Amino acid sequence: MDVRQLRYFSVIAEEKQITKAAKKLHMAQPPLSQQLKLLEEELGVKLIDRNGRSLELTQAGEVLYQKAKDLLIYFEETKKEVKEIGNGLKGNLAIGSVKTSFSLIPERISYFRKYYPRVSFTIKEGDTFTLAEELKKRTIELAIVRLPFNLDLFSHLPLHSDCFVAVIPDQWHYEHGISMEEAAQLPLIMLSTMKGAGLYGLVMNEFKQKGLIPEVVCRTPDAAMVLSLVRAGVGAALLPQSALTALPLTGVKAVSISDVDIYTETVIIWLKDRYLSKNARHFLHTFTEEDVMLPRSL
């Protein structure tokens, strides 16, 4: 059994048809079927069951597939690490960011590319849980996310923490701020994740601690949608203050919350025990004051 056979088997497992797998691998079907047969003979177990036109993994096949995915990732990362020794920075760096923290990225990329012009970027947007899944799948190397979030699988670098403010339509009059009791009486649009508690859980727990039951009229994971709904007069929103630097504020305004006691921390995360490319390691340095001198606006 070698790396080539494991790659073949993984594609068969994912495509569930020999024909589709052969097409994806740019090879003929008979040699691929022969490789699967040789692998099963070597291991002495059946790896695939035919279910009509589709192929299904046996229990042994499922175990091999999960192990093969990890081995293939490790193999590719080992090749990358060896190739990068002695080489300058080049290629593509894939990163992710929650929309409410995206303002941390543009100036850093501009700064980074002045020194490493041969590095390009791919940027994915999503909520914290979506980006964590992208990290696990190795489609990105770094992600800027907001806590709370379970960091057991991730290394992280704290960036900053900030308080919540109320975002209201321009025509509403709360020039001197708003209390949590007043906020609970307003129709609220809540920023929520597709999975887990996240910022929504923080805000709702604060209401609960104060014995208040808010009127939530809408929940969405998209911060831009939250502001559009506020702009239209649907309701108010409670958002981290720093989130507003990345979003258009036309037609809305932010006011302080007099008695709020919740903060959210922004961190940059990456998978523990995963090889980080040179590009990723150098980009991480742009978030540490001791390593680089960044523009004052950061």
TrEMBL record:
Any Pfam family: LysR_substrate
UniProt-listed InterPro entries: HTH-type_LysR_regulators (IPR050950), LysR_HTH_N (IPR000847), LysR_subst-bd (IPR005119), WH-like_DNA-bd_sf (IPR036388), WH_DNA-bd_sf (IPR036390)
Protein origin, superkingdom: Bacteria
Gene Ontology molecular function: DNA binding; DNA-binding transcription factor activity
The keyword DNA-binding appears for this protein: yes
Family to which the UniProt record says this protein belongs: Belongs to the LysR transcriptional regulatory family.
PANTHER family on file: HTH-TYPE TRANSCRIPTIONAL REGULATOR BSDA, HTH-TYPE TRANSCRIPTIONAL REGULATOR YBHD
Protein name: LysR family transcriptional regulator
